[in-house]
Amino acid sequence: MKLKNNTDLQNINIENQITELKKKLILLKIKKSTKQKIQTHYIKLTKYKISQLLTLKELNKQ
């Protein structure tokens, strides 16, 4: 997929920002539920899922 105009680029930027915010939110929820003890499994799983989504997004650009 090729960028048609500046709006497409802005939309991609917004999606990336949303992804980062969701990631931070998940980490905060984990901290809260474990009373500041972060479970590494969930963090790794979250990072893996985010990585998958970003990879898919990159493939869709091509």
Automatic annotation (TrEMBL):
Stretches that traverse the bilayer: none
Cellular component, GO, one term: ribonucleoprotein complex
InterPro entries according to UniProt: Ribosomal_uL29, Ribosomal_uL29_sf
A GO BP entry: translation
Sample GO molecular function, one term: structural constituent of ribosome
Coiled-coil intervals: 4-31
Top-level lineage group: Eukaryota
Keywords associated with the record: Coiled coil, Plastid, Ribonucleoprotein, Ribosomal protein
Family statement drawn from the similarity comment of this UniProt entry: Belongs to the universal ribosomal protein uL29 family.
The protein, known as: Ribosomal protein L29
Source species: Nitophyllum punctatum
